[in-house]
Amino acid sequence: MQRFIVMLLMLVSSVGMSQRLPNRKNTIENMRLANEYFMKTWPDPAEKIVLDKVRTSNLWTRGIYYEGLMDFYKIDADKKYIDYAIAWGDGNKWATWFGVKSRHADSHCCGITYIDLYQMDTTQKQRLAEIKASIDLMLASDKVDDWTWIDALQMAMPVFAKLGVMYKDERYFEKMHQLYLHSKNVEGGGLFNAKDGLWYRDKDFVPPFKTPNGKECYWSRGNGWVVAAMVKMLEILPKNAKNYKEYEEMYLTMMKSLLPLQRKDGFWNVSLADPDDFGGPELSGTALFAYGMAWGINNGYLSKKNYLKPTLKAWDAMNKTCLHPDGMLGYVQSTGKEPKDGQPLSYDKKANFEDYGLGCYLLVGTQVYLLK
């Protein structure tokens, strides 16, 4: 009997240990390490990015980084982060990536941080001018079929939501929802598969398309962008907003669908339904899913019982498997649209753009830090 009690206590203790929260000091230090690596690599945040072609730094990948940095600032209020973000906006003259007339979601992603920085100092009208003008042009049009790929939801929905809240104007919410519904229900016959609770990246991957092993092709990072977009909707919109409940239901559906797909090592495969389709560690999708889970726990949408262990397992995996001693992040899939892009991944291989993976890492790290 005594032996049974001892074994029971050991079991309870091991369960408690497995869900022990990460040391906050270590969490902050890891995030600082990764961020410092990037800031040292890019001392001039407005410097053009030269790869296969020259791109200005207000592109979507950098917009995701600054979104993560602004979240990180909430738990590590170092003025240099804000200075770095302002220098980025100033250097790009607070312009959108493709210009004011562009309806492209990638062009609007920079606006997430532009709006945040404007709200910090509303005398700086130039920070808001072009992004608002660009979105207002979309409001004035009946066109709603722009978001033909699921990444677009994260790139642009937060901009519409922030403007709607700032101006108390529900037209932004309504137009955003029309664009969202096109992606969900109309594009390619509907990019959301309600049966599996996951999204096809774009119409190219809607059935009859299958992975090489005959499975549905649900790209990890693409679904991660949708998770992040839903989190931002629940975070930004008033709870009594007309379509709040739908975003909440989508978020909860995806969280439930993702739970059994996590690998034993804490990561999610780039091809969610097919572990043999370039299976292995990958940071960006994993970070976005864990971000969604940690945020849900922190805000009362998800239970610790079901989601804390997977969240901590993912965070631990990213730090042990991806984070270098100098702050570089390995195992980040390069830009693309499907599991095969940028393969093979490795600890030492850099993604073609080093910014968006870090942005995802900062988003999840902030929420892990806030866990209680």
TrEMBL record:
InterPro entries: 6-hairpin_glycosidase_sf, 6hp_glycosidase-like_sf, Glyco_hydro_88, PolySaccharide_Degr_Enz. GO terms for biological process: carbohydrate metabolic process. GO terms for molecular function: hydrolase activity. Signal peptide: none annotated. Keywords: Hydrolase. Pfam families: Glyco_hydro_88 (PF07470). This is Glycoside hydrolase family 88 protein. It comes from Lacihabitans soyangensis. The lineage of its organism: Bacteria, Pseudomonadati, Bacteroidota, Cytophagia, Cytophagales.
